[in-house]
Design a protein that fits this description.
There is one protein chain. The protein has eleven helices and eleven strands. It has a six-stranded parallel beta sheet with strand order 7-8-6-9-10-11, sandwiched between helices. Strands 2-1-3-4-5 form a five-stranded parallel beta sheet, with helices on both faces. Helix 1 packs parallel to helix 6, helix 3 runs parallel beside helix 4 and helix 7 packs across helix 8. The longest helix is centred in the last third of the chain and has 15 residues. InterPro entries: DgcN-like, DgcN-like_C, DgcN-like_N, P-loop_NTPase.
Amino acid sequence: MQINPPYLMFLGDVHDQLAAKTAQGIVDWRAEWCVGQLRLPNCKADLGIADMTIAGAKAKGVKTLIVGVANAGGVLPDHWTSVIVEAIEAGMDVASGLHTKLGSKPEIAAAAAKHGRTLFDVRHSDMTFATGKGDKRPGLRLLTVGTDCSAGKKYTALALEKEMRARGLDADFRATGQTGVFISGRGCAIDAVVADFISGAVEWIAPAADANHWDLIEGQGSLFHPSFAGVSMGLLHGAQPDAFVVCHEPTRTTMRGVKTPLPSIADVIDLTLRCGKLTNPAIKPLGIAVNTKALGEAEAKKYLADLSAEYGLPATDPIRFGVGVLVDKLVADYPQSGKLARVG
């Protein structure tokens, strides 16, 4: 699919900033595509870009309205329909990462047909996937895993890609969620894949590659989350990661959306190793990525230093302090990675 920028980011009336993580991710990594945001009354999220109406966005040359939310169940509320129809009538395409398809709303489907506009349902792939086979394939792979969902797995993988490419390493971010697909222009939202085919879809996302090439696979959910562990397990088996980075948010006590206590980093490392060895017996942890946004500078540095000492692994905040220490360890652990500079 070819989704044409520039974009107007539609946030609806989401109840917190995290519910707008799709839009936030696009703004953070593709700011040049994002002209403004449209928020309904009582919206509790703010991307820090200009607020706009549909008419104002049209005047700025916006080509696509992005429904940039990630709510529970991926539903498209009925009261958002009129805004989407207005955008279509103004000449915009519409793209969404929700489970609910845009065209399932009769008013939206009719408006798109009448005005010749395209509806992009990024979460839904037209691919037919095979079941996962678990056969070792050439190339190197890193998977980001988490103590919870929404803990920085996508941002960590993207930061690693940026740093590794800057060093001349052959590395590609592989998107497994709707926001990652928006950012990279390719991939598959695996939480919309039928369960039997999740691992096969990941094998397709990160196929056989040069022996020195790294696929940096975006993690989803958590092996400990009662809602999303099934997706996380299928992703782990399909990725066959050689290395993994544990992503963590230190202020949470329970997992997002449920009352289940947050697991420890040690728990995540142990379970990832035990389950990951099914398809790659050589799997090992590379480091720890922490979202320290809620901590002060000195507190964050001490927290990361303490984690590093406790686990014997580099620990960093990928956005605040970069991922240099993680790439340093990757190159040290896998010296063959530096033998092939990225081409193209």
